[in-house]
Amino acid sequence: MDDNKTILNEYLDKYVKGYLIGDLERMMDLEYHSAAVGTNGELGYACLLVISVGMELLGSLLSGKRGKSALDSFWTVFQGQVSDKYTDSIRDMFWVAIRCKLAHMYILTNQIRTERKGLSSKHLQQINGQTYIDGETLFKDFCNVYEIIKAKLLNDSSNLEARVKSIRFEVNQRSEIVTSALVNSIVGAHEIDPNMIGASGIKGTFSTR
Q1: Taking the alpha carbons of 183, 186, 187, 189 in that order, is the dihedral positive or negative?
Q2: Nearest Cα to Cα of residue 115 among 16, 37, 19
Q3: 93-116: average pLDDT
Q4: Mean of per-residue pLDDT scores for the chain
Q5: What is the three-class DSSP state of 127?
Q6: For the segment 122-153, what is each residue's pLDDT rounded down to a tens digit?
Q7: Could you give the C-alpha distances from 125 to 74, 75, 130, 152, in angstroms and in order?
Q8: pLDDT digits (tens, 9 = 90+) for 34-67
Q9: Three-point CA angle 37, 96, 167, nearest 5°
Q10: Given the DSSP bridges, would you call strands 112-115 and 130-134 parallel, antiparallel or unpaired?
Q11: What's this model's pTM, rounded to 2 decimal places?
Q12: Do residues 64 and 127 lie in contact, with contact meaning Cβ atoms separated by under 8 Å?
């Protein structure tokens, strides 16, 4: 295995298989209490959010694109290799209502019903105006696609060097940029315009849940 393939393989094993999938495996191993009995904190939202981030990450590595375009690239493999139930409309719902909504507000619309486990028989079905998503089923399907995409990435030598450079940027330079921005925001916090601060904090920063 050449140097670029070694770097890519190590990245996938450490950051995707180790961190992302490892965290999801831990979520799945935890004792489950059905939300039907009024129990909160069952990690349904967290599970969906981590999987959606993983979809975008793998799609980005596959296509070199970002955001919705990266998810589209992942979804093409999802549809072709896992199930035709993962339709284009489900993909669009995933981006708008799950990937973006959960990341920014940690809440879902009433049109989506999800649990970490227990909904496998209804997964991706639309019942009474709600789309059901079973976290455990989605996770298993995601893991299957991860292995397929990993093989594609390691076997496709085209643009391999560019992918590795992108990985190095994401892991090293981007973290430095974020850290620098965070430090600067803290240092300059005393310069915040008082007119931008309301009773609930800085205006426009937080939304009512």
Answers
A1: positive
A2: 37
A3: 87
A4: 79
A5: strand
A6: 999 999 999 999 999 999 999 999 999 999 88
A7: 21, 18, 8, 30
A8: 655 455 667 889 999 999 999 999 998 888 888 8
A9: 105
A10: parallel
A11: 0.75
A12: no
Q: Enter the tokens of residue 174.
A: 């981007």
List the beta bridge partners of residue 133: 114
Q: Which residue has the tokens 């339709």?
A: 87
Q: Which two tokens stand for residue 58?
A: 């793998």
Where do we find the tokens 């390691």? Answer: 154
Residues 140/160, Cβ–Cβ less than 8 Å = no
Token pair of 69 as six digits: 């375009």
Q: How far is CA 13 from the centre of its chain?
A: 17
End-to-end CA distance of the chain: give it in Å, rounded: 50
pLDDT band per the 50, 70, 90 thresholds, residue 85:
confident
pLDDT of the residue at 202: 35
Query: d(Cα 109, Cα 107) in Å, to the nearest integer?
Result: 7
Domain segments of the chain as ranges:
3-187
